[in-house]
TrEMBL record:
GO terms for molecular function: polysaccharide binding. GO terms for cellular component: membrane. Residues 40-90 form the Wall-associated receptor kinase galacturonan-binding domain. Residues 1-23 form the signal peptide. It is a single-pass membrane protein. InterPro entries: WAK_GUB. This is Wall-associated receptor kinase galacturonan-binding domain-containing protein. It comes from Triticum turgidum subsp. durum. PANTHER family: OSJNBA0016N04.9 PROTEIN (PTHR33491). It is found in: Membrane. Keywords: Signal.
Length: 299
């Protein structure tokens, strides 16, 4: 067996340079009212910002600070000082691109891809799927940290180009559905024919991305191949957020920390998540909508 060389070219680098948990000053721990957040920046580019995330003192819960970078034509939103970009935000979560392109080298068979959440309390939601596109490989996905096997899939092309317009089910494309929320992952890819992965002049190499389990991608590889030419078109992965400064719903309620929670769920990884029965933001005072007479669009 030849030396294992890792030659991954990240299209986008997702490594957090340093843990940002200790990060920016000015984070709050009590539950704010929407009035006390009125001065906060509501959006960055076309991404709306929802508490507990925020920019600037008094606008975010400790550990949930964001940075809006205006140096590009379209401002970009990032988690703290990390390189994890926020491309869309929801109550309790956000989406971020997690995309890898591998340039395979003849004679090199093993490649790895990995992604780790930049802070405790951020996980890749179990409703995401890992899509891997290319010819003649086996992939195994491991949970970051525990190294537990999460799933595996394989692709064979039988000496032909990866076909488009077919489901992503093992010919030129395969998927691994996540069984649960993960703090990150490592994917080990073994190429079974390094000639085959380079045989397609249009899409040389192998590409992988994490995204919601989306029929548009899963049932017809055409959408995947058309996004490959401009990877920024890919739908991002859905990340979930839990509050980890309290160990459970009960302790949070005792400290009034979950004031607007219509329903509170312990997280398996410690901490809790807060949800509204209807719409609204459970992380602010009276933030959940109470039928039609409730607050209109709280942020
Ligand atoms: C914004 O992005 C530019 C270009 O990527 C980078 O050089 C700069 O350091 C960033 N600014 C901040 C405040 O992060
Ligand atoms: C796959 O998607 C493409 C582009 O949207 C479409 O033209 C094609 O008919 C689809 N193929 C199948 C089998 O649904
Ligand atoms: C490897 O891939 C090339 C190009 O697709 C093909 O011609 C060749 O038969 C494959 N080799 C094996 C052992 O499958
Ligand atoms: C949450 O966790 C705490 C302590 O681990 C436990 O006592 C409690 O019953 C759990 N609550 C729910 C709603 O699962
Ligand atoms: C929680 O809120 C209730 C009602 O506002 C208040 O009476 C109580 O003192 C609070 N408890 C703590 C620990 O802050």
């Amino acid at each position: 067996m030849s030396t294992i060389l890792i030659t991954i070219s990240f299209v986008l680098m997702f490594w957090a340079a340093a843990p940002r948990v200790a990060g920016a000053a000015g984070g709050i721990l009590q539950i704010p009212s929407s009035d006390s957040l009125a001065h906060c920046i509501p959006s960055c580019g076309d991404v709306d910002i929802f508490y507990p995330f925020g920019i600037g003192p008094g606008c975010f819960r400790q550990g949930f600070d964001l940075t809006c970078n205006h140096s590009t034509k379209h401002p970009k939103l990032f988690l703290g000082s990390s390189t994890v970009q926020v491309t869309d935000m929801y109550h309790g979560g956000f989406s971020t691109p997690i995309i890898f392109t591998l340039t395979t080298t003849p004679g090199t068979y093993t490649y790895t891809m990995s992604w780790e959440a930049p802070a405790k309390g951020i996980t890749i939601g179990g409703d995401n799927t890992f899509y891997v596109v290319g010819c003649d490989f086996d992939v195994t996905l491991f949970e970051y940290g525990t190294q537990d096997v999460v799933g595996s899939c394989m692709s064979r092309c039988g000496g032909k180009k990866a076909p488009t317009g077919v489901p992503c089910n093992g010919i030129g494309c395969c998927v691994i559905q996540l069984p649960r929320d993960l703090p990150g992952f490592q994917a080990k890819l073994v190429s079974t024919n390094t000639t085959a992965t380079q045989s397609d002049w249009l899409h040389p190499g192998i590409m992988a991305f994490m995204s919601l389990d989306d029929y548009e991608y899963r049932d017809n590889t055409t959408a995947i191949f058309s996004s490959w030419t401009n990877v920024r078109n890919f739908h991002g992965a859905m990340l979930r957020v839990t509050i980890v400064d309290q160990p459970s719903c009960e302790t949070a309620q005792m400290k009034n920390a979950s004031y607007a929670c219509s329903s509170c769920q312990n997280s398996s990884s410690g901490g809790y998540g807060c949800y509204c029965n209807r719409q609204g933001n459970p992380y602010i005072l009276d933030g959940c909508m109470q039928g039609t007479s409730g607050p209109t669009s709280p942020k």
